[in-house]
Amino acid sequence: MIREYLEKIQKELIDQKRETEKKIISLENTEKENIKFIELLDEINDPNYEAFTPRTVNARNKEKINELKVQQKNIIKEKSELQNKLYDVQRRLEECQSIIQCEREKETIAQQYQEEDNAEYKIQLLEAQEMERQRIARDLHDSTVQDLTSMLHKIELSMRVMDMDSQRCKMELSNVLDNIRNVISNTRKMIYNLRPMSVDDIGIDVTLKHAIAKIEQEWNRKIEYIIIGKPFHVKPVVALSLLRIMQEACTNALKYADAKEICVVLEYTENDISLVIEDDGIGFNTKKKVAKTKNSGFGLSIMKERVHLLSGEIQIKSEEGKGTTISIRVPNFVEEEENE
C-alpha cells in the first residue's frame, strides 16, 4: 500500500522533471537565438555603416536590442528558477526512489520470512499428522490388537478343552463374546474421535455441545457454552477444524494452565463463523516463540496453520497469570444443498 502510493508520487515527480527540462531547453534555445539576433543588430548599428543606414532604422534596431536584452534578463531569471525547481524535483525524486527501494527490500525480507514461516508450519503440520498416526497405531496396538490376541488364545484354549470340559469351554467363549463387544465399542469410539458423525448430521453447534459435555465429564469441570446468531451448516472440514481447536484449547487449559473456568463462544454471522475459547488459567508470554504444546496432538502453531488453510484469522491473547483467549474467525463456507 505504501509502496504503491510512493510509486504514484514518483511517476508525478518524473513527469514534473521532464516538463521542467523541456522548459529549460526551450528557454536556452530562445536565449541563443536572442544572442545571435543582438549580435546581428549590433553589427548593423556599427558606426562604420551608419552612413549607409537610415536613422529611423538605427533607432528601431537599438530599441529592439534593448527589448531583447530585457528579455534575456527575464529568460536568465526564469531559467534560474526552473533550474532550482529541477534541482528540488530531482532531490525529492531521489528520496522517493530511496524510500521505494527500502520498501521493496522490506517486502522481500517479509516474503522470505513468510516463506520460512510457511515452511515451518508445513513441517509442524506433517509432524502433527505423523504424531496422530503414531497415536492411532499405539491405541490400536494397546487396545484392539491386544484384545484380539487375548480372544484368539481363549478360542484356541476352548477348542482344546471342548471335548474334555464343555462347561469351561462355554465360560471362555462367553468371555470372548464380552471382549468382542468391548472391542466393537472401543473401535466405534476411536472412529468417532477421528471423525464425529454428528458433524455431518446435526452441525457444528451440537457437535461442540457434545464434545464439551465429554470434557466436563472427564475433568469434572463446568464449561460455559454460548451460541450467538442463527446456526447454519458449514463444510465438514471447517467444522472438524473448529472442533479440534476447541478440544485442544480446553484440554490444554485444564491440563497445563490449571484453569478453573472456561467459556466457549460460537458465533454465526452473515459472512463468517467465529469461535472464542477463554480461560482463567496461568497464561503465558505470547512474545516468546511458542512451540508445540507438550504431549498434545498439535500446538498453537498448528492451530494457526489450520485456520490459515481455511483462509481465516486467529488471535491469541495471553499474559502470565491472566489466562488465555483464542479467537478464530473463518469465512462463511456454507454447505450448499443439492437440488434433487
Automatic annotation (TrEMBL):
Swiss-Prot/TrEMBL catalytic activity: ATP + protein L-histidine = ADP + protein N-phospho-L-histidine
Enzyme class, UniProt record, top EC level: transferase
One protein family per Pfam: HATPase_c
Taxonomic placement: Bacteria, Bacillati, Bacillota, Clostridia, Lachnospirales
Keyword hit for Iron: yes
Keyword Nucleotide-binding: yes
Source organism per UniProt: Roseburia amylophila
Predominant cellular place of this UniProt entry's protein: cytoplasm
SUPFAM superfamilies named in the record: ATPase domain of HSP90 chaperone/DNA topoisomerase II/histidine kinase
Location(s), subcellular: Cytoplasm
Record key words, sorted: 4Fe-4S, ATP-binding, Coiled coil, Cytoplasm, Iron, Iron-sulfur, Kinase, Metal-binding, Nucleotide-binding, Phosphoprotein, Transferase, Two-component regulatory system
Molecular-function GO term, any one: ATP binding
Protein name: Oxygen sensor histidine kinase NreB
Cofactor(s) named in the record: [4Fe-4S] cluster
